[in-house]
Amino acid sequence: MTMTAGDADEGRTRTALVTGGTGGMGRVIATKLAADGFDVAVAYVGDVDLADATIGEIKDQGRRGAAFAADIADEGAVSDLFDSIDDHFGRLDVVVHTAGINRPAALTELDLADLDAIHRVNVRGTFVVNQQAARRMRDGGSIVNVSSTMVRVAPPALSAYAASKSAVDTLTRILAKELRGRDITVNAVAPGPTATAAFLNSTPAEEQEQLAAWPPLGRLGRPDDIAGVVSFLVGPDGRWVNGQVVYANGGLA
User: Fold this and answer.
1) Nearest CA to 20 among 198, 234, 251?
2) Alpha helices in 61-213 (DSSP H)
3) SS in 3 state form for 18-85?
């Protein structure tokens, strides 16, 4: 079991929230944090069976888990989410925000309703979750947002998505400074193309091969690659990393 800052002194198990915690990346992150010794709450939308399966994987690691349905861009819903976690586990030590959406299209063709949806989830959602986390989590903890390497690559058809994740990067850096004095680290992880089930199911095989050839390491990322970076950032060895965007992409950019 990996113990994080303060465990030995406080003699308690630490608690993490993973938003988007039933998705391909979020689910692996949630399970990894459970393996590291955290009790884990997951926030999700949609599939209750998938949420139950995720909690089962957390419990298989010997930790407590609970799933809560929540619209992460709704201030009231996220406040209620934190209330429920407080009631179930006590105050949070770690918040990992993975929830996000993408609707690829050329800038000249993108429906503005899709632009609004992307920014509601990716920008407003990150702001709302980080705001509640900063107000309510314990001192000495960590916040990790999931950004994207596409901010740096800037490929065609991802203008709205990359712009939204650029906002996540900026929010992350500023919040790290605003939390001075509370010993809370705030960082972002920026994956490259990652072989989640959603990615594999929505991306043609030829395109998958092309994307796998981009990084010098010659493969797609795996969810556990990203989970390992998150584990480092919220663990004792990552305490001096703060206000950073960590590019986890095999050297793609």
Assistant:
1) 198
2) 75-89, 112-119, 125-136, 150-153, 159-178, 197-202, 205-213
3) EECCCCHHHHHHHHHHHHCCCEEEEEECCCHHHHHHHHHHHHHCCCCEEEEECCCCCHHHHHHHHHHH
pLDDT at 198: 84
| Dihedral class, residue 207 (left if φ above 0, else alpha if ψ from -120 to 50, else beta) | alpha
For the chain, the residue count is 253
Residue with tokens 């480092």: 232
Parallel, antiparallel or unpaired: strands 185-191 and 245-248: parallel
The C-alpha atoms of residue 249 and residue 17 are separated, in whole angstroms, by: 24
Whether residue 144 has pLDDT greater than 90: yes
Which residue ranges form the domains of the chain, and what is each CATH number?
7-193+222-248 (3.40.50.720)
What is the C-alpha separation between 251 and 246, in angstroms, rounded? Answer: 12
Q: Which residues are catalytic?
A: 161
Distance (Å, whole) CA 229 – CA 144: 10
Mean of pLDDT over the chain: 94
At residue 44, what are phi and psi to the nearest 5 degrees?
Answer: -150, 165
List, for residues 44-68, the tens digit of each pLDDT value.
998 899 999 999 999 999 999 999 9
What would you report as the CA-atom Rg of the chain, rounded to the nearest whole angstrom?
17
